[in-house]
Amino acid sequence: MAIVDKLGESLNGSGGGIILTSVDAVVDWSRGHSLWAMPMGTACCAMELIAASFNKFDFDRHGTFPRPDPRHCDVMVVAGTVTRKMAPAIMRLYAQMPDPKWVIAMGNCAVSGGIFYYDSYSVIRGVDEFLPVDVHIAGCPPRPESLQDAVLQLRERITTESIAPGKRHVRELLLPTNGDVSLHENGDRE
Amino acid sequence: MNIQELRDHLCGQHPDLCPLFSIEFGDGVLQVDCETLYEAAENLQSLGFDRLGMLTAVDFGDHFEMVYRLTSRSMSVGMFLKCAVPRETPRTRSLVPLWPAALWQEREVYDMFGIEFDGHPDLRRILLPPDWVGFPLRKDYRDDRLIRRPDYI
């Protein structure tokens, strides 16, 4: 990642634009076609997420397959209901993923709280309260085809990115504004 | 053993518990005072109820009610044991010494209803974070983050 950053900085001078475009194409192609997924399955949507990675739907053909370690992963798929007790753990796992990283919110609960929007004391209304979500997938639960579509949309988004300084998608971790979610004390967010 | 035979058996062994026993919706219910809950549970255990299937609480507004589901493998019968807990002093005796299965479930009842159990070895929250304020399954629970469901939904 650091080499790519330095390359972007050094090519950003005069005359570097043509080379930069070609390098962008290679970097975006390689990033977009091997999105290793962090399967953050917190509830029943995880069943569809698991089904997506096995032979009937076979996400491996897109270069997307689940890894058990956040440090291997490019995209976090939050599949399921996020409770206030679970949110600090998700923030911590997200912080452990290396840049560049993306987030897919899968299912109504991860999008907005879903059926737990009203009258729930423990459920966070959407994972985008504390994570920068790239793609939302509606459904209760969504079919694996929807997840496939989300991966393809995310890939389209990645192809517009550039490694040049100032043209990257800068992803700040959204801090909670209402004090709902607090990171655990020893969370190693940089 | 069916529920009628259970009543006859219970009345034969413990005549003092007999008037507290009733049959509701085909299930035996023994409604006792919470002061005598532990003794009643002890008697039922020696009668053959060797398994505490589950325990929970109900908020009736003016008081709580503890509900214990007991089953017997030797007699092939199940029944409920209930006691009313006052809302002002929500406190009753723990059944952990009789059935260790009560350990986590009494913690959950404490977590959700705030009922304290005397004699419980490790009474602290189990599902909610330890710094949580309030007891969410009480009917009068209020929370700034909670959004009430509108009437039209």
What does this 3D model show about the protein?
The complex is a heterodimer of chains A (190) and B (153). With 190 residues, chain A is α/β, with parallel strands linked by helices. Helices cover 34% and strands 9% of the residues of chain A. With 153 residues, chain B is an alpha/beta fold. Chain B has a domain at 3-93: NADH:ubiquinone oxidoreductase Nqo5 subunit (Beta Polymerase, domain 2, 2-Layer Sandwich), CATH 3.30.460. The chains are: A alpha/beta (190), B alpha/beta (153).
What topology emerges from the helices and strands here?
The complex is a heterodimer of chains A (190) and B (153).
Chain A: H1 2-11, H2 17-32, E1 37-41, H3 45-53, E2 75-79, H4 87-96, E3 102-106, H5 108-112, E4 135-137, H6 144-158
Helix pairs in contact in A: 2-6, 3-6
Chain B: H1 3-13, E1 21-24, E2 27-32, H2 37-47, E3 51-59, E4 63-72, E5 77-86, E6 91-93, H3 102-113, E7 116-118
Parallel strand pairs in B: 2-5, 6-7
Antiparallel strand pairs in B: 1-2, 3-4, 4-5
Characteristic terms for this protein:
heterodimer, A: 190 residues, alpha/beta, Rossmann fold, 6 helices, disordered C terminus, B: 153 residues, Beta Polymerase, domain 2, 5-stranded mixed β-sheet, two-stranded parallel ribbon, 7 strands
Please sum up the structure shown.
Helices cover 34% and strands 9% of the residues of chain A. Chain A is α/β, with parallel strands linked by helices and 190 residues long.
The quaternary state of the protein chains shown equals heterodimer
**CATH H-level homologous superfamily name of the domain at 3-93 in chain B:** NADH:ubiquinone oxidoreductase Nqo5 subunit
Task: Report Rg of chain A.
Answer: 17 Å
In which order are the strands of the major sheet of chain A placed? Answer: 1-2-3-4
Count of alpha/pi helices of chain A: 6
Poorly predicted residue ranges of chain A: 173-190
Stated plainly, the CATH topology of the domain at 3-93 in chain B is called: Beta Polymerase, domain 2
The tally of helices of chain B reads 3
